[in-house]
Design brief:
The chain is an all-alpha fold.
Amino acid sequence: MNYLAHAYLSFNHPDILVGNMISDFVKGKKQFDYPLPIQKGIQLHRAIDGFTDQHPATKEGKHYFKPAVGLYAGAFMDIVYDHFLALDTRELTASASKDFSAQVYLHLSAQAHLLPENFARILPFMTTHDWLYNYRFTRGIEHSFGGLVKRARYLTDASPVFALFTKHYSELRQQYDVFFPEVKKFAGAQFEELVR
């Protein structure tokens, strides 16, 4: 799950951020249980996911992972995108990334009473271990891959997919470089529509 990209593509709007971050934990019509601004964040998240899944760069990148993880290749691509976003100084310098991460955790904690139970359970770990900032390090990606494998139904070992990430690092960076400016533009247009 690409937490960093969804946080960043909330464009510093606290309520949109909450919805964007919790969307994967809110199924179907449950989104309507939330205040309207948070519903809009959920909608933005879903639009970003749809755009990401259909983007040629994502489809290309998934090919590298499919031999090891099959249908989970898209989920691993999401984590890869967060890694390269964390390193993208056109978007976030290292110090700005640290400050941004801290702000995200503060906004989420301030709305803790609204968070779905499953997300509320992981937020302390996300904050304590600074997941958003640590996406910039390959050890952070290795940890994220391991977490995804634990949640997956038929995967047992993250090392094969991490080896593929390392092997195809340059090619995956190229996919990110194509993808991110386009998803940022798309998300920005969606955001403007939603907050109008």
